[in-house]
DNA sequence: ATCTCTATGTATAACTT
DNA sequence: TAAGTTATACATAGAGA
């Protein structure tokens, strides 16, 4: 891959080379273009291919050079997907993104740590599960569950609680002990997860349609989440 | 914005200009760098700022020139978020991404899993879910959790516990109260579920490869899936 | 779609202010 | 910490295979 670059022999490093047939090649070379929709379909597609790979390359470089997490998705107008992520899973980055949004949406003043009314369980579990990631034992789950039961009072915190529980499950899955499970058992678990997932998805989509939030509410939400002076 | 480019007077279009003090400025100019982590923190940060804005600019250009949807997120290692999207909402793009994932087929094994989830068990769940719609209350969750905590003793019961937990979540999802939740929250839950699912899947596949149990385990699994008492 | 090739537009590394 | 400068490295438009 990298070797391909070595093939460059002529014009290396921008040095001009007089080929002798400058007349016939006079049209060649990069032209300046306006940043607006390329009308010609063919040209547009060629440009898309080139720039897409360029963009992904840049994204990768940024993540490597600066040790940052980068997630990138591109949808063509015909629905084809191109993606890149610096880690193993774009989904992880998306999760992180949404957690980030949630954190910001809770209160305009993020530095104010007194958010008792929001979700005590949330913060509590968050901390503990983060601390427990590397010293895993089965007891961890019980602990988390116990505190959950105690703190689980109002309906408003249900989702948050369940979400955090899921995090706990996830770190549980990563533990060595989990590997001892039978393949069949794992598949059973997978099946349950997928079932739950399907339910939530259909409900969510239903809710979005009901609320007509595709065009309106989501935008409002994003306005809230987005600060104008972002970069 | 665009006007800034007009400021260039010297070295415009790459033409060399002898400033007279070439001696003192001999060190200037871009150097080639390796694509690997920049060790110097300060330098890394400067590079990050430059390249981040460059990347976002490229992303914007791609979306405009080629009429494609682009979503980009960058997390610094200290948790700061930078984002870009071609439309008005990154969440829309993320949702589109998730819908895309749902529709696409993965590895052969995963195809099997997906087929399976479309049939018998799914129907079973469907029925149960419908029956549970009107008798839900928050207390139920606590109950389930409580018994979970009690039963959760040895590593061997982890799977059972997790399974029960998922059941709890699932019935919770069916309750009317759940619909009050924010769409964003639901998506977060979805993402967490998917993350957990991915982890389990990869572990399971790994285990299957290790044990060379491709053939016989799948049969066992199919038996299991066809059992009505799965949940 | 992907590669080549030229010529040039742009991004950006190292420095300076 | 951010903005500006210089000189160069890299990306890519246009044309063709």
TrEMBL record, chains A, B:
The keyword Repressor does not apply. InterPro entries: MADS-box/MEF2_TF (IPR050142), MEF2-like_N (IPR033896), TF_MADSbox (IPR002100), TF_MADSbox_sf (IPR036879). Keywords: DNA-binding, Nucleus, Transcription, Transcription regulation. SMART domains: MADS. The keyword Cell membrane does not apply. Residues 105-124 are annotated as: Disordered. Its main location: nucleus. Residues 28-88 form the MADS-box domain. It is found in: Nucleus. This is MADS-box domain-containing protein. It comes from Citrullus colocynthis (colocynth). The lineage of its organism: Eukaryota, Viridiplantae, Streptophyta, Embryophyta, Tracheophyta.
